[in-house]
Amino acid sequence: MSTSLKKKTITLKFGGSTLASATHFLQVAEYLKTRCQSATVIAVVSATKGTTDALYACTQLAKHNREQASQALSDILAAHNKLVTELLPASFASNYRQEIAHYLEQTKTRLQNIHQGENIDWHIAFVLSLGEKLSASLLSALLQSQQRTASWVPSELLIRTDSEPFNTNLDQSATEKAFAALNEDYFQSAIRIITGFCGADKDGRTTLLGRNASDYSAAIVTAFAADELELLGDTAGILSADPDYVPGAETVAELSVEDACLLSQCGAGVLHPRTLEPLLKTGKSLRLGTLQHEQGTSIRAQLAHRQASLLAAWSPPQHAELSKKPPLPLNLKKWQARFPESSLVSVFLADHHALRYWQNLLTDIAAQAGVSVLQRKLLSKQRVIVFAIPSIELQRFTRLLHSRLYPLQQETAVAIIGASGRIGRQTLQLLLTEGQRLFAESGTQLRVIALCNSKQTLWCKRHENDCQGLLNRLAEQPLQQRPASLLAQELLSQGYDKLVVVDASASSEIAGLYEQFLAAGVAVVTPNKLANSDALQRFTELQSLARKHRVPYCYETTVAAALPVLKPLLDLRRAGDTPHHVEAVLSGTIGFVLDSVQQGTPFSAAVQQAVEKGYAEPDPLQDLSGEDVARKMLILLRTCGIRIERSEIELTPLHDTNLHGPINQQVDERWRQLVLEVQAANQRLCYAAQYRDGNVSVGLKRIDAQSPFYRLRGTENAVIYQSTFYQDIPLTVTGPGAGINVTSAGLFADIVVAAEALSRRAPLSAIAA
Ligand SMILES: NC(=O)C1=CN([C@@H]2O[C@H](COP(=O)(O)OP(=O)(O)OC[C@H]3O[C@@H](n4cnc5c(N)ncnc54)[C@H](O)[C@@H]3O)[C@@H](O)[C@H]2O)C=CC1
Ligand SMILES: N[C@@H](CC=O)C(=O)O
């Protein structure tokens, strides 16, 4: 074929995920318009996401039940019609429908033929090719409606194949002739569109190149009609592992043609195994990426070294007639016969030496994780180790190996539970904005890998730094009714050497996971008071677990937010100090409410403001009942070495709905009267905790001007500590003890402390080795 244009010709292949909705079609149209400013563009399109599977299901129904098949086809067409209505003005929609009518009629006939049992495979092949035709004609009509010259052609006119309906082979010379014979007019359009996935035999019958073979179609088109190829999908190029298995998998910038071939032969779904054949013959280049992601992966003919380790996972195909097994560089049939329920994980090592060392190390890691390696094979020349394992372990094993091949050398992974809450989101913001500076100043590198709330989890990609964007994506994740234990399992199965889990929830379920995290060597950082204020035995066990597994357990913010209270008290205790008398104001919410009512604000309004300002607990009754203060006092005293249970604290609530009723005007009036009384006596109100002679009490107090608490305002907390070392003049810590900014700052500081401690610890992989 010849084109009259001098510009470079580029084939852009759009996978099903890039055509999943009307918005996606509009994005593809914009992308094409931009690209055709600097190149002549040929677009090869797949069927919209899920359509080929739906058509396949239709053909299977047709074998036994014509009505159901016809209903299933109507459903597919209804989904397409919805796209057409959303995308095309009426006149273009009507042209489009006329253009496609012939294919729809044919499809219906073919379904009938399938039902009658004649030449079934040929009819199935035709029906399956419908998805690409619908996409191509819709995209072409959309571009035309946007005043672009665009035209589409079914690939049956261009790609000629053997007479096999499925997994057919290319007829090179017939295809060459077909491209040469194609009407010149077609190539006058600014944007030319060709359907992917299929071709035709010498009799014009539709044939299929294989499951997900639109990449291969695009490579054939490139070999005959273009200078280079770009495959555009929903993953940012070739990743270090299948992102469905390893959410944190990384994009590999460059890959040799040999490795790309081997990778697809080993079952990595990212490239159809035959895609590279036509390009290899013609020496044309290939890039994989997304519409948004600039970097992607370039496949290069010459590359001195493998730049990064890679993993390919392979499990037996679902639709055998559509998916030819990859011709792996080993006798797959034998393996499968011996281990029928097995899957394969191939490890491409970047390390140029020590193949046997790696083979043994990875095998040991499998053994320690309880994954039984059924068989393994070392392909020395290719520096690839193939493991056969039970299929059920495929995802876990892939993640485990990935974490060993990509140990975060400097980085510490951070997962935030409760990320959409007030403290969680501000902490995320700090991690994203202050992370760079922290790294520059101290070398501590933090990487947020996961965000969770009570129903959703988002696995973050590297370099995602837009806090609101991440939170939006978290909110778009599917809702899961998952028990907390499953969340813990998911986080642990990532296999990070250095992982900090931040619990920014107020959930007892999440607090119940700390033992599991600590025992697995994962640091816990928390402002959630529930674990440490549980039974004393649990508090002690958590401390010993952390010590035993050499893992940080940081909870400074559970008492007085970012104020330095627990760490200094712990240091004193380690030096042998014993507290005699501790007095403390520990509730920012109550401090704020009392200060406000003493300035004339009604009690109910003051409580409302404390909630709005982010001082109160998710359930503010936890503050008003005094329970939150009791918990903080327990944690404080236990940190000083006092062995005390919650039942030993004498608590008088500030407001308990069971005792005092709902917060209404009567309550406001009672508080107004009390304030008048107290002010008449030149006193103030404060809610304080006290420890003296082994007794602990929490409650409302009237204090006069001599009290160290008399001058406290707003959310100010205070701890006054007298001990063996601080006898005459007490140790006093005071300052705001609640609020989103101060708490998140304290939490950030604890995350850094935990990350630094993890960095000093020997890597888990070394321990495992
Ligand atoms: N507000 C403050 O000044 C201070 C708060 N804290 C503590 O910080 C924690 C968070 O407080 P806020 O951000 O105000 O709460 P919030 O209610 O705004 O956020 C809680 C988050 O936890 C998530 N969550 C709840 N149950 C969950 C579960 N089972 N699994 C996963 N996620 C779950 C929620 O979806 C939400 O994203 C609380 O424990 C609080 O005591 C500690 C010191 C000061
Ligand atoms: N709700 C608490 C803040 C968290 O500990 C308070 O008001 O002090």
Helix content: 40-55%
Number of strands: 26
CA-CA gap between termini: 59 Å
Number of helices: 28
Q: What share of the residues does DSSP label as strand, in percent?
A: 15-25%
Low-confidence stretches: 1-5, 319-323, 764-769
**What count of structural domains?**
4
CATH level 1 class label of the largest domain: Alpha Beta
CATH superfamily grouping of the largest domain: Acetylglutamate kinase-like
Radius of gyration: 33 Å
What class do helices, strands and sheet pairing give? Answer: alpha/beta
- Taken from the alpha-carbon principal axes, the silhouette is elongated
Q: Strands of the biggest beta sheet: in what spatial order?
A: 3-4-2-1-7-9-10-8
Small molecules (ligands, ions, cofactors) in the structure: 1,4-dihydronicotinamide adenine dinucleotide, ligand LTNE7NMQ
Classify the fold: give the CATH topology of the largest domain: Carbamate kinase
Main β-sheet description? 8 strands, mixed
Report the CATH architecture of the largest domain: 3-Layer(aba) Sandwich
Mean pLDDT: 90
Keywords: Amino-acid biosynthesis, Methionine biosynthesis, NADP, Oxidoreductase, Threonine biosynthesis
GO biological process, one term: methionine biosynthetic process
Protein name: homoserine dehydrogenase
Organism: Permianibacter aggregans
